[in-house]
Amino acid sequence: MEENAKKKKLNIPRLVMLATGVLLALLVGIFALVLEAGKKSLTDQTLVNRWSDGKEFAQISLFISPSQYVTNDEIGLYRHEIESGYKTKGMVAAFEPETGNPNLMDAYMATTTMDLKGEYGSKTLDTFCVGGDFFLFHPVRLLSGNYFSEDDLMHDYILLDEEAAWDLFGGTDVAGKKVEWNDMELVVAGIYRRESGEIETLAAGNSEPKVFVSYDLFKYDPAKPAITSYELLAPNPIKNYATDVVNSITVFPDDAVKTVENSSRFSYANYYELLKNRKGRIMRTDDIPFPYWENLARYKEGKLMYVALWQWILATVLFVLVFVNLMVFLVQHKPTKETFEKLMDKIREKRRAKKEGVIVFDEE
């Protein structure tokens, strides 16, 4: 009796360790799900997964100082340099190939304000001037109408958010109507709903209405707005291939551009780099502005960095727990070579019996 009670008492620590191990494994799994959900929650950062269809691509962003005064002329030169960079590395890549589909796509944006007049009233509105396949990279939530594209024959389209539609027309069913700007008429392509969460509003300055127009609207304007963000979807057959091509281009000075590979930013390697450089990341010593999607992504990856840190800590504790238990088992049972041979013989016998349909009972 006394001996049985002692055995039961000795088993309690093992049960506690087993329960602790199960709990740790569960938490590590939950953190993995949180990291995956966070990665997929930002549509602006997931073009590779939405587009590549199993092929290897990379999404790369360049954020440019306004002091460089980059316009669509420099964008045209940059596109040419990208195609040349791939050719130099022995790979064919093109934005507009003579045959087949393009394997390079890009988008760019500048910001300004526009004095717009509609049927209901006039208002000065914050404006995103976009080019390339911008809405492929950043599919804002349309309530009515359609996106516009750089490939459109005319570039006089405008995309209004709900509040801008109310300010200019007194309603939101206005796709196809026209607004006046600088003695020009712009066609309302559609109405979209801007993000309204606390963090989204902070990241985008979304307390005021926003509109989108084509950058080509300013093509012949001597005071056209400076492009401050450029994004690229490019072939990436091996790690850092696309990034190496981009880094080899010298159109913009290095100190005037910040480059981010979006397709790898929500990886454990990037979380580790963020942890190492978190102080420098918070401090800004340049004049390079970030667009709303980059502000939001930086906030999100900063949060997920700490989720990854806790996952690493718990995974390390779990590993130590399993290792200690294994060492205790080896010390207590002192297995020999013959022990492992018997174990392997038993496994082989069970496999053989299973193939032959024979049930094997373990000996007591």
What would you note in describing this structure?
By secondary structure, this protein is of the alpha+beta class. Helices cover 45% and strands 21% of the residues. The chain contains eleven helices and ten strands. It has helices at residues 2-40, 47-51, 72-88, 134-137, 162-169, 198-204, 241-247, 268-276, 278-282, 292-333, 337-356; strands at 57-64, 105-117, 122-132, 141-145, 157-161, 178-181, 184-193, 210-214, 227-235, 257-261. Strands 1, 2, 3, 4, 5, 6, 7, 8, 9 and 10 form a ten-stranded mixed beta sheet that branches. A hairpin with a 4-residue loop joins strand 2 and strand 3. The longest helix is centred in the last third of the chain and has 42 residues, at 292-333. The protein is elongated. The model has no long low-confidence stretch (mean pLDDT 85).
Give average pLDDT, whole number: 85
Radius of gyration: 29 Å
In terms of DSSP E residues, the strand content is 15-25%
End-to-end CA span: 22 Å
Shape: elongated
Helix fraction?
Answer: 40-55%
Residue stretches low in confidence (pLDDT < 50, at least 5 long) are: none
Largest sheet: 10 strands, mixed
- Give a count of the beta strands, DSSP E runs of length 2 or more: 10
Pairing-aware structural class of the strands and helices? alpha+beta
Output the number of helix runs.
11
The string of secondary-structure elements, in order, is HHEHEEHEEHEEHEEHEHHHH
